[in-house]
């Protein structure tokens, strides 16, 4: 399957590349991950520099950002706003429809624990290259609103490239697809859309989102060498075989996802 191939390729690259100590600011909202005391794949090795001004790659980013602007206030905008939330009890719900089960602390506590603990590893996998380039975000360039206005002061100080949100959503989807291989395509597609929600929200460029996926794949490959992660992965797999709770509002989610250019 494609996602397994991608993981294998990036895993090989990550093994050969330099690694960096995990960078976790004190009191980080992302919490503690599995790789708290171990090295993480170096994002400055994994990803090239962001597109330079005047390049075809930058023009592609601008075109994709402009295509998202008319979606403000739409159902896709509302879905992107929900996807932006990484810290509430609802943050893992976006994968439920793709998985075919309701994912929550109540219905899938072991899976919830697994995904939430990887949030720090995946989110901070982009830290080094973000700091190196401090790329300006779309809303800082085009002056248009974002779907999370309260976050804008913080986002202005945090480099746009690559997207940590994209890394988290795509990384979650890779992990869940491994647990539910029969639904892998749907799950990874939703993880991809989770990252693209950042383009819809006017806070990330397309290339930010794409490189976030690369960081996610390398980090998930690295996580597989962690024995605690492996133990929790096994527990989540057993749990998913028993869960009966069904997700809701899946037709509305599908319609919203299909509305994005």
Your description of this structure?
- The protein is mostly helical.
- Helix content is 58%, strand content 2%.
- It has a single domain (2-14, 60-258), classed as Phosphatidic acid phosphatase type 2/haloperoxidase (Vanadium-containing Chloroperoxidase, domain 1, Up-down Bundle).
- It has helices at residues 2-16, 43-46, 56-68, 75-83, 96-99, 109-123, 127-133, 138-142, 152-156, 164-179, 184-200, 206-223, 227-240, 250-258; strands at residues 19-21, 39-41.
- α4 packs across α11 (184-200).
- The chain is globular and about 50 Å long.
- The model is unreliable at 1-27 (pLDDT under 50).
Helix fraction by DSSP (H/I, runs of at least 4)? 55-70%
Question: What is the CATH homologous superfamily assignment?
Answer: Phosphatidic acid phosphatase type 2/haloperoxidase
Biggest β-sheet: count, sense, barrel? 2 strands, antiparallel
| Number of domain modules | 1
Return the CATH topology: Vanadium-containing Chloroperoxidase, domain 1
Number of strands: 2
Structure summary:
Helix content is 58%, strand content 2%. By secondary structure, the protein is mainly alpha-helical.
Which keywords apply here?
single chain; 261 residues; mainly alpha; Vanadium-containing Chloroperoxidase, domain 1; two-stranded antiparallel ribbon; 14 helices; globular; disordered N terminus
Write the layout of secondary structure elements.
Blueprint: H1 2-16, E1 19-21, E2 39-41, H2 43-46, H3 56-68, H4 75-83, H5 96-99, H6 109-123, H7 127-133, H8 138-142, H9 152-156, H10 164-179, H11 184-200, H12 206-223, H13 227-240, H14 250-258
Antiparallel strand pairs: 1-2
Helix pairs in contact: 1-12, 4-11, 4-14, 6-10, 6-13, 10-11, 10-12, 11-12
């Amino acid at each position: 399957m494609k996602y397994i191939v991608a993981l294998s390729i990036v895993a090989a690259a990550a093994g050969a590349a330099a690694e960096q100590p995990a960078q976790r600011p004190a009191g980080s909202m992302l919490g503690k991950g599995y790789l708290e005391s171990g090295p993480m794949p170096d994002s400055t090795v994994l990803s090239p520099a962001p597109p330079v001004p005047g390049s075809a790659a930058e023009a592609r980013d601008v075109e994709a950002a402009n295509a998202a602007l008319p979606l403000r206030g739409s159902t896709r905008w509302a879905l992107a706003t929900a996807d932006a939330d990484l810290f509430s009890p609802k943050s893992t719900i976006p994968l439920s429809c793709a998985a075919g089960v309701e994912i929550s602390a109540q219905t899938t506590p072991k899976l919830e624990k697994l995904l939430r603990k990887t949030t720090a590893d995946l989110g901070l996998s982009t830290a080094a290259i973000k700091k190196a380039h401090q790329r300006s975000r779309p809303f800082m360039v085009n002056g248009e609103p974002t779907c999370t206005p309260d976050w804008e002061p913080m986002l202005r100080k945090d480099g746009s490239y690559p997207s940590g949100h994209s890394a988290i959503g795509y990384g979650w989807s890779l992990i869940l697809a491994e647990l539910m291989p029969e639904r892998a395509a749907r799950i990874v597609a939703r993880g991809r859309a989770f990252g693209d929600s950042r383009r819809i929200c006017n806070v990330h460029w397309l290339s930010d989102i794409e490189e976030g996926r690369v960081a996610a794949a390398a980090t998930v490959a690295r996580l597989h060498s962690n024995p605690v992660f492996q133990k929790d992965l096994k527990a989540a797999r057993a749990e998913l075989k028993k869960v009966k709770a069904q997700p809701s509002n899946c037709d509305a989610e599908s319609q919203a996802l299909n509305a994005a250019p």
